[in-house]
Amino acid sequence: QGPCDIYASGGTPCVAAHSTTRALYGSYNGALYQVKRASDGTTKDIGLLSTGGYADAAAQDSFCAGTSCVITVIYDQSGNGNNLTQALKGYWSGPAAGGNDNLANAVEAPVTVGGHEAYGVYIAPGTGYRNNNTKGIATGDQPEGMYAVLDGSHYNGGCCFDYGNAETSSTDTGNGHMEAIYFGNSTGWGYGSGKGPWVMADLENGLFSGVNRGLNSGDPSVSNRFQTAIVKGTANLWSIRAGNAQSGGLSTYYSGARPNVSGYNPMHKEGAIILGIGGDNSNSSAGTFYEGVMTSGYPSDATENAVQANITAVGYSSAATGTGSLTPGSRVSLQATTACCTSDYIRHDDADSKVVISPITSASSAVDKADASWIVRAGLADTSCLSFESANNPGQFLRHSNFELYLNTDNGGSSFAQDATFCPTSGHSGQGFSFQSVNYPTKYLRHYNYTVYIAANGGSNSWDSSTSWAADTSWLVDQPWS
Ligand code: AHR
């Protein structure tokens, strides 16, 4: 059984069902999404490992090997054809050609579902998906429900990381013309208690945390790595509900009347579907989407509670799937091999974003051990190479800037992806591995004076020194310290 089977039993069937990680019906056996690769511009549908099962991410990995891929289509599993594709220029322009929005990098949001590798939809600012010509989605004041499973650690305050019902014109047509889930820490309209992020409803010209704009303290900040977010609405009644997508039930943060401002009662829903943007194609927000649906009819709390139980049973996890090897998903520590430094490991510094080598032993603190542990990821710019995500700072990757290594948050941009992608080769000294920068192929990860750089064998920077270059660029891939 999938979430949409549960909604159907509750009398509020899915009219759109989107996921890059799994089937949302027990009987679904079609494609989940489509990717396009940079090398030759060809596309491929990514399907399931089995009927009603999980995404065949390995098919994506092999199609995208040696190049990079973007997600071009997120298919609607409901049979209504409500697919999501690149959001085109609206009132606001996006950064892509023609003022359209960017498409998401297909490997930027790795995840484990039911023990299987999968990828979410990583929305960096400027990225967005939309369908302005839908079938079966609520219009006017018709009742509907929706949920989404999101990365609760990836958000910002920009407008508006939404999933749900919006204008068919990609412009702001007035109060009540949207009804979508919002996730982030925008305080421009409404907000909840604490510092955010909050699950709110985007009803157009306002992110609502409760009955009216401003503070509604019943809507708490949430901090789950995997967040279930729910918005539903019917005649003069709407609700915000949410929970931890890994365990436990849902809480109701608001359920009551429509905002007491003209335009919201009755609503004027238009029935387009947006992901990662606002109704007018505002596109400065960030977030990550794994799955979500929209229903016809106002689902009961009991139906949603059963959907939440289905979600928690999936076992969404960001944990590594192995240890000690350079396979994506594995957790490793990277040990220096130069005679000076064989007790030293690549680690990030807590005080700043610098990346250094320092000794780690079994007596080191838990924080030091975690700072020296990395999750191997498919290369953000080339999936036949690798990226290294911090074990204790999710979403932050080893990247070079001015040839020095830093730990920075992935901003989704293609420069960041290049700066964070390294191709493993056998170690220059004959020991272990060397890691070649994908955008500066003469340069490899190197320690010099206990700082980590990308360095060529002889060059203009001090760290390009040929002395011990081969040893300084050779690393052992070890079991992770944490
Ligand atoms: O309601 C918040 C935002 O305001 C909407 O998403 C957008 O259409 C408008 O700019």
TrEMBL record:
Domain called Alpha-L-arabinofuranosidase B catalytic: residue spans: 3-317
Alphabetical UniProt keywords: Glycoprotein, Glycosidase, Hydrolase, Signal
Alphabetical list of SUPFAM superfamilies matching this protein: AbfB domain (SSF110221), Concanavalin A-like lectins/glucanases (SSF49899)
Classification via InterPro entries: A-L-arabinofuranosidase_B_cat, ABFB, AbfB_ABD, AbfB_ABD_sf, ConA-like_dom_sf, TAT_signal
Pfam families: AbfB, ArabFuran-catal
KW Hydrolase (keyword) present: yes
Span of domain Alpha-L-arabinofuranosidase B arabinose-binding: 335-477
Family of this protein: Belongs to the glycosyl hydrolase 54 family.
UniProt cross-references to PANTHER family, sorted A to Z: ALPHA-L-ARABINOFURANOSIDASE B
The protein's name: Alpha-L-arabinofuranosidase B
